[in-house]
Design brief:
By secondary structure, this protein is of the alpha+beta class. The protein has helices at 23-36, 61-70, 87-95, 99-102, 125-134, and strands spanning 3-4, 10-18, 44-45, 53-58, 74-84, 111-119, 143-144, 151-158, 172-181.
Length: 184
């Protein structure tokens, strides 16, 4: 189910992974870039200022890419398929994402991989594998390719602002398809 904005255009959700430097400038920069490109500054969802995750509700990937090309604070851009405070909420959120948007990336002749990114908690490889196995409800039909995947998906977890008091379970979980990464 796509959101819609005042103009009637469908709105898609994107997730920005923000850098951990200059935290006080991150959201003002994104607001400024949205304003520059004609986006609405009310289209940002942010749970807390210390989180590196910023959800954008915007009409197009083209706008998201323009923001990524100009920003110094964002590291990665994801097409957000779902999010929640626990695995069940994540699953419900993903199941409400339009299937027609997923189908091109779930084909039997495609390759994919799922990466894990955790904020303020270090996970062992074994813990990462358990988390990847937990999203087995995803209807992937392609083959896993860790080296040359056509489609890269991320499970991103937010463990709060303090790594010294990180909870056992994440405060928020996101799942999305990588669209642009400045680090590569």
């Amino acid at each position: 189910m796509a959101l819609s904005c005042r103009s009637g255009a469908a709105v898609k959700r994107y997730l920005l992974l923000l850098a951990q430097e200059n935290c006080e400038f991150r959201l003002p920069e994104i607001h400024s870039l949205l304003s520059l490109y004609g986006g609405n500054i009310n289209n940002i969802q942010d749970d807390h200022e210390t989180s590196p995750f910023c959800v954008l509700n915007i009409p197009s990937e083209a706008l998201a890419r323009k923001i990524m090309h100009r920003t110094v604070c964002a590291k990665s851009l994801f097409e957000l398929w779902g999010h929640g405070k626990c695995l069940n909420e994540l699953k419900q959120s993903i199941q409400s994402y339009p299937l027609e948007n997923m189908v091109p990336y779930l084909q039997p002749n495609s390759t994919y991989k799922i990466c894990i990114h955790s904020f303020n908690k270090t996970l062992t490889q074994k813990e990462k594998i358990v988390k990847i196995d937990a999203v087995e409800f995803m209807p992937f039909k392609g083959k896993v390719s860790l080296q040359n995947a056509e489609h890269i998906f991320y499970l991103l977890e937010d463990y709060g602002p303090n790594p010294n008091t990180a909870p056992k379970d994440p405060l928020k979980i996101y799942f999305g398809r990588l669209r642009m990464d400045k680090e590569n």
